[in-house]
């Protein structure tokens, strides 16, 4: 049973110290996918990603294209890690896409 915390849009913005317009832009860019689109609910994984995107933009100065690439690479690494943990990845064979 998954009892993961879920926050509404306003709560997420407050928690992440981000403007609502910025979070909506992150969603439009498809960097963030709310766990519940209909009610715009965000879980801890979403919050971590929001904080990462905010840091990439504000502190490091990464542009939109750079964020797209960074998040894509992170997603690929996460998928590969899951495959390895499940035993779907055989030693010596290339990872599946």
Secondary structure elements and pairings:
Blueprint: E1 6-8, H1 9-16, H2 20-28, E2 41-43, H3 44-60, H4 64-86
Antiparallel strand pairs: 1-2
Q: Biggest sheet, in brief?
A: 2 strands, antiparallel
| Count of beta strands | 2
| Strand proportion | 5-15%
N- to C-terminal distance: 29 Å
Secondary-structure element series: EHHEHH
Structural class: mainly alpha
Percent of residues in helices: 55-70%
Overall pLDDT metric? 88
Major sheet: arrangement of strands: 1-2
Tertiary shape: globular
Low-confidence stretches: none
Number of DSSP helical runs? 4
Radius of gyration: 15 Å
Write up this protein:
This protein is mainly alpha-helical. The protein starts with 5 loop residues before the first strand and ends in an 11-residue tail after the last helix. The protein has helices at residues 9-16, 20-28, 44-60, 64-86; strands at residues 6-8, 41-43. The radius of gyration is 15 Å and the shape is globular. The protein is built from four helices and two strands. The protein has a two-stranded antiparallel sheet.
């Amino acid at each position: 049973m998954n009892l993961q915390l879920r926050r509404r849009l306003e709560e997420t913005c407050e928690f992440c110290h981000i403007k609502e317009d910025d979070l909506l832009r992150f969603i439009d860019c498809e960097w963030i996918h709310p766990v519940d689109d209909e009610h715009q609910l965000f879980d801890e994984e979403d919050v971590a990603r929001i904080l990462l995107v905010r840091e990439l933009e504000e502190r490091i100065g990464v542009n939109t294209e750079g964020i797209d690439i960074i998040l894509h690479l992170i997603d690929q690494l996460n998928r590969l890690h899951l495959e390895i943990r499940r035993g779907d990845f055989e030693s010596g064979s290339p990872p599946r896409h």
